[in-house]
Design brief:
alpha+beta, about 80 residues, globular, Glutaredoxin, 4 strands
């Protein structure tokens, strides 16, 4: 059995961010993923976002690596699925 991947979803709890959270929950990225919502409006969430170089929201990191799409464009769900496999 493989180790669970950690998927962090960085949000500001805005409607757009909530839509992304819902899509990821509905799509079930993978059965072996642990999904964590990181609220960047709280100091611990803001610190974690800064550690990973999050510059726009919503954003997603898998196992501590920010998805490439999150640096310059909207979230690419195909890229997320690849990162989780």
């Amino acid at each position: 059995m493989s180790e669970k991947r950690k998927v962090e979803i960085f949000t500001a709890e805005c409607p757009i961010c909530q839509e992304v959270v819902s899509k990821i929950s509905d799509a079930s990225c993978c059965d072996s993923c642990e999904t964590v919502i990181v609220n960047t409006q709280k100091s611990t969430g803001a610190e974690r976002a800064k550690e990973l170089g999050v510059s726009r929201l919503p954003a997603i990191a898998v196992d501590g690596e920010l998805l490439g799409c999150c640096e310059t464009s909207p979230i690419d769900f195909d890229m997320l699925k690849q990162a989780c496999s």
